[in-house]
Design a protein that fits this description.
Strand order of the largest sheet: 1-2
Number of strands: 2
Distance between the termini: 76 Å
Radius of gyration: 25 Å
Shape: globular
Number of helices: 19
Amino acid sequence: MTTTASRKDSRTRRIALAARRHPRAPLWIAAGVITLGFLVALQIAAHHLGIQGPITAQAREVIHAPKSGFLLYASLALTMVVLTWRQRLIALGTAMGIDLVFLLVRWATGTYPDEGHPFGNGALWVILGLGVIALTRRTGPERVLMLKGVGLGLLLVTGRKTGDTWLLITSKTRPLILDPYVAMADHALGNPSWLAGRLLRASGPVGEHALDYVYAQLAVAAVCVALYQLRNVAAERRFPRHHLVRTFLLIGLLGPAFYMIYPVVGPMFAYGPEGGHWAAANLWPDTLPPVITPYAMPFDEITPRNCMPSLHTAWATTIFIHSRTGPRALRYAGAFWLVATLAATLGFGWHYGVDLIAGVVFAYTVEAGLRTYDRGWDRAGLRLIGYGTVVFAVLLASYRFVPLEMAAYPWISGPLLLLAMASVVYAYRRTTRLWEAESAPAPRPEPQPELAV
Protein backbone atom coordinates (compact mmCIF):
# COMPACT_ATOMS: atom_id res chain seq x y z
CA MET A 1 0.00 0.00 0.00
CA THR A 2 1.44 3.37 -1.05
CA THR A 3 1.90 5.84 1.79
CA THR A 4 1.36 9.59 1.61
CA ALA A 5 5.09 10.23 2.05
CA SER A 6 6.01 7.91 -0.82
CA ARG A 7 3.48 9.61 -3.10
CA LYS A 8 4.99 13.01 -2.23
CA ASP A 9 8.49 11.69 -2.92
CA SER A 10 7.35 10.31 -6.27
CA ARG A 11 5.74 13.62 -7.20
CA THR A 12 8.87 15.54 -6.20
CA ARG A 13 11.01 13.25 -8.37
CA ARG A 14 8.70 13.79 -11.36
CA ILE A 15 8.89 17.59 -10.94
CA ALA A 16 12.68 17.46 -10.66
CA LEU A 17 12.89 15.25 -13.76
CA ALA A 18 10.68 17.66 -15.69
CA ALA A 19 12.82 20.60 -14.59
CA ARG A 20 15.95 18.80 -15.84
CA ARG A 21 14.29 18.09 -19.17
CA HIS A 22 13.08 21.68 -19.49
CA PRO A 23 15.64 23.82 -17.60
CA ARG A 24 14.07 27.07 -18.82
CA ALA A 25 10.54 26.12 -17.71
CA PRO A 26 10.83 27.84 -14.28
CA LEU A 27 12.02 30.99 -16.04
CA TRP A 28 9.01 30.97 -18.38
CA ILE A 29 6.66 30.47 -15.43
CA ALA A 30 8.30 33.28 -13.44
CA ALA A 31 8.19 35.62 -16.45
CA GLY A 32 4.52 34.84 -16.98
CA VAL A 33 3.64 35.49 -13.35
CA ILE A 34 5.60 38.77 -13.27
CA THR A 35 4.02 39.95 -16.52
CA LEU A 36 0.51 39.13 -15.32
CA GLY A 37 1.14 40.84 -11.98
CA PHE A 38 2.50 43.92 -13.74
CA LEU A 39 -0.55 44.13 -16.02
CA VAL A 40 -2.96 43.75 -13.09
CA ALA A 41 -1.11 46.42 -11.09
CA LEU A 42 -1.16 48.78 -14.07
CA GLN A 43 -4.85 48.11 -14.61
CA ILE A 44 -5.61 48.93 -10.96
CA ALA A 45 -3.53 52.13 -11.11
CA ALA A 46 -5.30 53.20 -14.32
CA HIS A 47 -8.69 52.52 -12.73
CA HIS A 48 -7.86 54.74 -9.75
CA LEU A 49 -6.80 57.55 -12.12
CA GLY A 50 -10.00 57.23 -14.14
CA ILE A 51 -8.33 56.08 -17.36
CA GLN A 52 -8.51 52.93 -19.44
CA GLY A 53 -6.10 50.16 -18.42
CA PRO A 54 -4.25 47.75 -20.75
CA ILE A 55 -6.45 44.74 -19.97
CA THR A 56 -9.76 46.51 -20.59
CA ALA A 57 -8.35 48.26 -23.68
CA GLN A 58 -7.33 44.93 -25.18
CA ALA A 59 -10.56 43.16 -24.23
CA ARG A 60 -12.54 45.98 -25.86
CA GLU A 61 -10.91 45.29 -29.24
CA VAL A 62 -12.47 41.84 -29.39
CA ILE A 63 -15.66 43.60 -30.53
CA HIS A 64 -14.93 47.30 -31.04
CA ALA A 65 -12.78 48.79 -33.81
CA PRO A 66 -9.10 48.38 -32.92
CA LYS A 67 -6.71 51.28 -32.63
CA SER A 68 -4.30 49.62 -35.07
CA GLY A 69 -5.45 46.80 -37.31
CA PHE A 70 -1.98 46.59 -38.82
CA LEU A 71 -0.52 45.80 -35.39
CA LEU A 72 -3.06 43.02 -34.80
CA TYR A 73 -2.24 41.39 -38.13
CA ALA A 74 1.48 41.76 -37.37
CA SER A 75 0.83 39.98 -34.07
CA LEU A 76 -1.02 37.23 -35.94
CA ALA A 77 1.99 36.88 -38.25
CA LEU A 78 4.22 36.36 -35.20
CA THR A 79 1.83 33.74 -33.84
CA MET A 80 1.76 31.89 -37.17
CA VAL A 81 5.50 31.18 -37.13
CA VAL A 82 4.66 28.00 -35.18
CA LEU A 83 2.18 26.79 -37.84
CA THR A 84 2.64 24.93 -41.10
CA TRP A 85 2.02 26.76 -44.36
CA ARG A 86 -1.39 25.10 -44.75
CA GLN A 87 -2.36 26.13 -41.22
CA ARG A 88 -1.14 29.67 -41.86
CA LEU A 89 -3.33 30.02 -44.93
CA ILE A 90 -6.34 28.74 -42.99
CA ALA A 91 -5.63 31.10 -40.07
CA LEU A 92 -5.15 34.12 -42.33
CA GLY A 93 -8.27 33.33 -44.36
CA THR A 94 -10.30 32.92 -41.19
CA ALA A 95 -9.08 36.27 -39.84
CA MET A 96 -9.94 38.05 -43.08
CA GLY A 97 -13.35 36.36 -43.20
CA ILE A 98 -14.17 37.47 -39.65
CA ASP A 99 -13.07 41.02 -40.49
CA LEU A 100 -15.32 40.99 -43.55
CA VAL A 101 -18.28 40.01 -41.37
CA PHE A 102 -17.45 42.80 -38.89
CA LEU A 103 -17.16 45.28 -41.75
CA LEU A 104 -20.56 44.30 -43.20
CA VAL A 105 -22.22 44.50 -39.78
CA ARG A 106 -20.75 47.95 -39.11
CA TRP A 107 -21.84 49.14 -42.53
CA ALA A 108 -25.36 47.77 -42.05
CA THR A 109 -25.78 49.23 -38.56
CA GLY A 110 -24.11 52.57 -39.30
CA THR A 111 -21.39 52.02 -36.67
CA TYR A 112 -18.39 52.60 -38.92
CA PRO A 113 -15.56 53.81 -36.60
CA ASP A 114 -14.64 57.49 -36.55
CA GLU A 115 -11.12 56.63 -35.39
CA GLY A 116 -8.94 53.55 -35.42
CA HIS A 117 -9.16 50.89 -38.11
CA PRO A 118 -12.24 48.99 -39.32
CA PHE A 119 -10.24 45.75 -39.47
CA GLY A 120 -8.09 43.73 -37.09
CA ASN A 121 -10.73 42.06 -34.91
CA GLY A 122 -10.43 38.90 -37.00
CA ALA A 123 -6.70 38.66 -36.34
CA LEU A 124 -7.28 38.95 -32.58
CA TRP A 125 -10.04 36.32 -32.71
CA VAL A 126 -7.75 33.87 -34.54
CA ILE A 127 -4.91 34.42 -32.04
CA LEU A 128 -7.26 33.71 -29.15
CA GLY A 129 -8.70 30.72 -31.03
CA LEU A 130 -5.24 29.26 -31.51
CA GLY A 131 -4.72 29.57 -27.75
CA VAL A 132 -7.92 27.59 -27.14
CA ILE A 133 -6.84 24.95 -29.67
CA ALA A 134 -3.45 24.65 -27.99
CA LEU A 135 -5.07 24.03 -24.60
CA THR A 136 -7.78 21.63 -25.79
CA ARG A 137 -6.40 19.85 -28.88
CA ARG A 138 -2.63 19.76 -28.41
CA THR A 139 -0.42 17.97 -25.89
CA GLY A 140 3.21 17.90 -24.86
CA PRO A 141 5.80 19.89 -26.85
CA GLU A 142 3.25 20.80 -29.56
CA ARG A 143 1.03 22.50 -26.99
CA VAL A 144 3.99 24.37 -25.49
CA LEU A 145 5.18 25.55 -28.91
CA MET A 146 1.74 26.80 -29.95
CA LEU A 147 1.21 28.56 -26.62
CA LYS A 148 4.57 30.29 -27.05
CA GLY A 149 3.46 31.53 -30.46
CA VAL A 150 0.14 32.78 -29.06
CA GLY A 151 1.93 34.42 -26.14
CA LEU A 152 4.37 36.14 -28.48
CA GLY A 153 1.55 37.61 -30.56
CA LEU A 154 -0.46 38.72 -27.54
CA LEU A 155 2.60 40.25 -25.88
CA LEU A 156 3.18 42.52 -28.85
CA VAL A 157 -0.41 43.78 -28.69
CA THR A 158 -0.46 44.01 -24.90
CA GLY A 159 2.86 45.82 -24.93
CA ARG A 160 1.30 48.52 -27.11
CA LYS A 161 -1.68 48.84 -24.75
CA THR A 162 0.63 48.93 -21.74
CA GLY A 163 2.61 51.75 -23.32
CA ASP A 164 -0.55 53.74 -24.01
CA THR A 165 -1.62 53.36 -20.37
CA TRP A 166 1.83 54.40 -19.15
CA LEU A 167 1.63 57.57 -21.22
CA LEU A 168 -1.72 58.50 -19.69
CA ILE A 169 -0.35 57.82 -16.20
CA THR A 170 2.63 60.14 -16.78
CA SER A 171 0.34 62.98 -17.82
CA LYS A 172 -1.86 62.51 -14.74
CA THR A 173 0.88 62.05 -12.12
CA ARG A 174 3.66 64.40 -13.31
CA PRO A 175 2.32 67.99 -13.28
CA LEU A 176 5.81 69.51 -13.73
CA ILE A 177 8.01 68.94 -16.78
CA LEU A 178 11.76 69.36 -17.26
CA ASP A 179 11.79 70.55 -20.88
CA PRO A 180 13.70 73.78 -20.11
CA TYR A 181 16.59 71.66 -18.78
CA VAL A 182 16.64 69.43 -21.85
CA ALA A 183 16.29 72.39 -24.22
CA MET A 184 19.37 74.00 -22.65
CA ALA A 185 21.33 70.75 -22.90
CA ASP A 186 20.24 70.45 -26.53
CA HIS A 187 22.20 73.61 -27.36
CA ALA A 188 25.26 71.35 -27.18
CA LEU A 189 24.04 69.62 -30.35
CA GLY A 190 22.86 72.80 -32.07
CA ASN A 191 19.15 72.22 -31.30
CA PRO A 192 18.64 69.69 -34.15
CA SER A 193 14.86 69.51 -33.67
CA TRP A 194 14.52 73.17 -34.72
CA LEU A 195 16.52 72.54 -37.90
CA ALA A 196 14.73 69.28 -38.71
CA GLY A 197 11.36 70.94 -38.14
CA ARG A 198 12.10 73.63 -40.73
CA LEU A 199 13.41 71.05 -43.22
CA LEU A 200 10.34 68.86 -42.80
CA ARG A 201 8.02 71.81 -43.27
CA ALA A 202 9.89 72.72 -46.47
CA SER A 203 9.43 69.15 -47.78
CA GLY A 204 5.67 69.65 -47.95
CA PRO A 205 2.86 67.17 -47.30
CA VAL A 206 4.60 64.29 -49.12
CA GLY A 207 7.57 64.25 -46.75
CA GLU A 208 5.33 64.74 -43.72
CA HIS A 209 3.00 61.86 -44.61
CA ALA A 210 5.90 59.53 -45.41
CA LEU A 211 7.70 60.16 -42.12
CA ASP A 212 4.46 59.98 -40.16
CA TYR A 213 3.75 56.54 -41.63
CA VAL A 214 7.26 55.32 -40.80
CA TYR A 215 6.94 56.59 -37.25
CA ALA A 216 3.48 55.08 -36.69
CA GLN A 217 4.26 51.65 -38.15
CA LEU A 218 7.48 51.00 -36.23
CA ALA A 219 6.06 47.84 -34.62
CA VAL A 220 5.15 46.44 -38.04
CA ALA A 221 8.73 47.00 -39.21
CA ALA A 222 9.96 45.15 -36.13
CA VAL A 223 7.69 42.23 -36.96
CA CYS A 224 9.16 42.02 -40.47
CA VAL A 225 12.66 41.59 -39.01
CA ALA A 226 11.38 39.19 -36.35
CA LEU A 227 9.65 37.03 -38.98
CA TYR A 228 12.98 36.61 -40.75
CA GLN A 229 14.63 35.56 -37.48
CA LEU A 230 11.77 33.16 -36.64
CA ARG A 231 11.37 31.73 -40.15
CA ASN A 232 12.56 28.24 -39.12
CA VAL A 233 10.46 27.83 -35.97
CA ALA A 234 7.81 25.65 -37.62
CA ALA A 235 10.42 23.31 -39.12
CA GLU A 236 12.70 23.11 -36.08
CA ARG A 237 9.80 23.10 -33.58
CA ARG A 238 11.60 25.53 -31.28
CA PHE A 239 12.28 29.26 -30.96
CA PRO A 240 15.80 30.67 -31.28
CA ARG A 241 17.44 31.68 -28.04
CA HIS A 242 17.51 35.39 -28.91
CA HIS A 243 15.39 37.43 -31.30
CA LEU A 244 14.17 40.98 -31.82
CA VAL A 245 10.82 40.65 -30.04
CA ARG A 246 12.51 40.03 -26.67
CA THR A 247 14.48 43.28 -26.84
CA PHE A 248 11.51 45.19 -28.25
CA LEU A 249 9.24 44.17 -25.38
CA LEU A 250 11.87 44.72 -22.66
CA ILE A 251 12.54 48.24 -23.91
CA GLY A 252 8.81 48.94 -23.72
CA LEU A 253 8.66 47.52 -20.20
CA LEU A 254 11.65 49.39 -18.73
CA GLY A 255 11.56 52.66 -20.68
CA PRO A 256 8.40 54.24 -19.23
CA ALA A 257 9.91 54.10 -15.74
CA PHE A 258 12.28 56.87 -16.84
CA TYR A 259 9.32 58.91 -18.07
CA MET A 260 8.18 59.04 -14.46
CA ILE A 261 11.65 60.07 -13.27
CA TYR A 262 12.36 62.52 -16.08
CA PRO A 263 9.05 64.00 -17.41
CA VAL A 264 9.56 65.78 -20.74
CA VAL A 265 6.90 66.53 -23.39
CA GLY A 266 9.02 67.64 -26.35
CA PRO A 267 9.73 70.94 -28.17
CA MET A 268 6.49 71.00 -30.19
CA PHE A 269 4.53 71.20 -26.94
CA ALA A 270 6.86 73.03 -24.56
CA TYR A 271 8.05 75.57 -27.16
CA GLY A 272 5.54 75.22 -29.99
CA PRO A 273 1.95 75.88 -30.96
CA GLU A 274 0.67 72.52 -29.70
CA GLY A 275 1.38 73.56 -26.11
CA GLY A 276 -1.14 76.37 -26.18
CA HIS A 277 -1.00 78.64 -23.13
CA TRP A 278 1.03 75.98 -21.27
CA ALA A 279 4.04 76.45 -23.57
CA ALA A 280 7.02 78.43 -22.30
CA ALA A 281 6.99 80.36 -25.58
CA ASN A 282 5.93 79.84 -29.18
CA LEU A 283 9.43 79.36 -30.63
CA TRP A 284 9.57 75.98 -32.37
CA PRO A 285 10.79 75.55 -35.08
CA ASP A 286 11.70 79.08 -36.21
CA THR A 287 13.43 80.63 -33.17
CA LEU A 288 15.94 78.88 -30.92
CA PRO A 289 15.17 78.99 -27.19
CA PRO A 290 17.29 81.55 -25.31
CA VAL A 291 20.02 80.36 -22.98
CA ILE A 292 18.54 81.03 -19.55
CA THR A 293 18.49 79.32 -16.18
CA PRO A 294 16.19 76.30 -16.59
CA TYR A 295 13.29 75.52 -14.29
CA ALA A 296 10.59 72.89 -13.86
CA MET A 297 7.44 74.24 -15.51
CA PRO A 298 3.81 73.13 -15.05
CA PHE A 299 1.98 71.54 -17.95
CA ASP A 300 -1.45 70.10 -18.75
CA GLU A 301 -2.74 66.69 -17.65
CA ILE A 302 -3.23 65.42 -21.19
CA THR A 303 0.14 65.50 -22.97
CA PRO A 304 2.29 62.39 -22.27
CA ARG A 305 5.70 62.94 -20.67
CA ASN A 306 7.34 60.45 -23.03
CA CYS A 307 10.58 61.97 -24.33
CA MET A 308 13.45 60.93 -22.09
CA PRO A 309 14.78 58.62 -23.39
CA SER A 310 13.32 58.40 -26.89
CA LEU A 311 11.90 54.88 -27.01
CA HIS A 312 11.06 55.21 -30.70
CA THR A 313 14.78 55.77 -31.25
CA ALA A 314 15.59 52.81 -29.00
CA TRP A 315 13.19 50.53 -30.91
CA ALA A 316 14.45 51.71 -34.31
CA THR A 317 18.03 51.12 -33.11
CA THR A 318 17.07 47.59 -32.08
CA ILE A 319 15.56 46.95 -35.52
CA PHE A 320 18.82 48.19 -37.05
CA ILE A 321 20.93 45.91 -34.82
CA HIS A 322 18.93 42.78 -35.58
CA SER A 323 18.64 43.49 -39.30
CA ARG A 324 22.45 43.35 -39.60
CA THR A 325 22.35 39.53 -39.66
CA GLY A 326 19.80 39.38 -42.50
CA PRO A 327 20.10 39.60 -46.27
CA ARG A 328 21.07 42.82 -48.01
CA ALA A 329 17.49 44.01 -48.54
CA LEU A 330 16.71 43.59 -44.84
CA ARG A 331 19.88 45.43 -43.84
CA TYR A 332 18.99 48.35 -46.12
CA ALA A 333 15.44 48.39 -44.73
CA GLY A 334 16.73 48.42 -41.13
CA ALA A 335 19.06 51.32 -41.87
CA PHE A 336 16.30 53.23 -43.67
CA TRP A 337 13.85 52.77 -40.80
CA LEU A 338 16.41 54.02 -38.29
CA VAL A 339 17.24 57.14 -40.30
CA ALA A 340 13.58 57.86 -41.09
CA THR A 341 12.57 57.41 -37.44
CA LEU A 342 15.27 59.81 -36.27
CA ALA A 343 14.14 62.33 -38.88
CA ALA A 344 10.50 61.97 -37.79
CA THR A 345 11.17 62.30 -34.06
CA LEU A 346 13.10 65.52 -34.63
CA GLY A 347 11.16 66.92 -37.58
CA PHE A 348 7.75 66.67 -35.95
CA GLY A 349 9.12 68.23 -32.75
CA TRP A 350 8.40 65.19 -30.61
CA HIS A 351 11.96 64.91 -29.27
CA TYR A 352 15.13 66.84 -28.59
CA GLY A 353 18.48 65.70 -29.94
CA VAL A 354 19.73 64.63 -26.51
CA ASP A 355 16.69 62.34 -26.18
CA LEU A 356 17.87 60.41 -29.22
CA ILE A 357 21.38 59.95 -27.82
CA ALA A 358 19.94 58.58 -24.58
CA GLY A 359 17.65 56.28 -26.58
CA VAL A 360 20.54 54.77 -28.55
CA VAL A 361 22.56 54.11 -25.39
CA PHE A 362 19.49 52.62 -23.69
CA ALA A 363 18.83 50.27 -26.64
CA TYR A 364 22.39 48.95 -26.79
CA THR A 365 22.47 48.44 -23.01
CA VAL A 366 19.22 46.46 -22.99
CA GLU A 367 20.39 44.39 -25.96
CA ALA A 368 23.68 43.73 -24.18
CA GLY A 369 21.77 42.58 -21.09
CA LEU A 370 19.75 40.01 -23.01
CA ARG A 371 22.77 38.73 -24.93
CA THR A 372 24.74 38.42 -21.68
CA TYR A 373 21.88 36.56 -20.01
CA ASP A 374 21.88 34.04 -22.87
CA ARG A 375 25.60 33.47 -22.36
CA GLY A 376 25.31 32.89 -18.61
CA TRP A 377 26.37 36.33 -17.31
CA ASP A 378 30.01 36.16 -18.40
CA ARG A 379 32.48 38.83 -17.35
CA ALA A 380 32.70 40.62 -20.71
CA GLY A 381 28.93 40.95 -20.87
CA LEU A 382 28.66 42.26 -17.33
CA ARG A 383 31.31 44.89 -18.09
CA LEU A 384 29.36 45.93 -21.17
CA ILE A 385 26.10 46.23 -19.22
CA GLY A 386 27.82 48.20 -16.47
CA TYR A 387 29.45 50.57 -18.92
CA GLY A 388 26.22 51.21 -20.82
CA THR A 389 24.33 51.79 -17.57
CA VAL A 390 26.92 54.28 -16.31
CA VAL A 391 26.94 56.21 -19.59
CA PHE A 392 23.13 56.32 -19.63
CA ALA A 393 23.01 57.57 -16.03
CA VAL A 394 25.69 60.21 -16.69
CA LEU A 395 23.78 61.46 -19.73
CA LEU A 396 20.55 61.93 -17.79
CA ALA A 397 22.38 63.51 -14.86
CA SER A 398 24.22 65.96 -17.11
CA TYR A 399 20.97 67.03 -18.80
CA ARG A 400 19.49 67.73 -15.39
CA PHE A 401 22.33 69.30 -13.44
CA VAL A 402 24.73 70.97 -15.93
CA PRO A 403 22.58 72.03 -18.91
CA LEU A 404 23.72 75.68 -18.72
CA GLU A 405 27.37 74.63 -18.87
CA MET A 406 26.58 72.40 -21.85
CA ALA A 407 24.86 75.29 -23.63
CA ALA A 408 27.75 77.65 -22.83
CA TYR A 409 30.42 75.30 -24.23
CA PRO A 410 28.74 73.44 -27.13
CA TRP A 411 32.02 72.74 -28.96
CA ILE A 412 33.12 70.68 -25.96
CA SER A 413 29.89 69.18 -24.63
CA GLY A 414 28.45 68.29 -28.05
CA PRO A 415 31.37 66.10 -29.19
CA LEU A 416 31.52 64.55 -25.70
CA LEU A 417 27.86 63.49 -25.97
CA LEU A 418 28.42 61.92 -29.38
CA LEU A 419 31.64 60.29 -28.20
CA ALA A 420 29.87 58.76 -25.18
CA MET A 421 27.18 57.28 -27.44
CA ALA A 422 29.74 56.02 -29.96
CA SER A 423 31.79 54.40 -27.20
CA VAL A 424 28.81 52.28 -26.09
CA VAL A 425 28.14 51.23 -29.69
CA TYR A 426 31.81 50.36 -30.18
CA ALA A 427 31.99 48.40 -26.92
CA TYR A 428 28.89 46.41 -27.92
CA ARG A 429 30.22 45.60 -31.39
CA ARG A 430 33.65 44.64 -30.04
CA THR A 431 32.19 42.36 -27.36
CA THR A 432 29.63 40.66 -29.62
CA ARG A 433 32.25 40.02 -32.30
CA LEU A 434 34.39 38.25 -29.72
CA TRP A 435 31.35 36.16 -28.72
CA GLU A 436 30.65 35.28 -32.35
CA ALA A 437 34.27 34.29 -32.90
CA GLU A 438 34.16 32.01 -29.85
CA SER A 439 30.95 30.31 -30.95
CA ALA A 440 32.02 29.84 -34.58
CA PRO A 441 32.87 26.19 -35.37
CA ALA A 442 36.54 25.44 -35.84
CA PRO A 443 37.50 24.93 -39.50
CA ARG A 444 38.03 21.32 -40.51
CA PRO A 445 41.52 20.51 -41.76
CA GLU A 446 41.52 19.77 -45.47
CA PRO A 447 42.87 16.37 -46.50
CA GLN A 448 46.47 16.54 -47.61
CA PRO A 449 47.75 14.54 -50.62
CA GLU A 450 49.93 11.59 -49.71
CA LEU A 451 52.94 10.36 -51.61
CA ALA A 452 52.44 7.04 -53.32
CA VAL A 453 54.98 4.43 -52.19
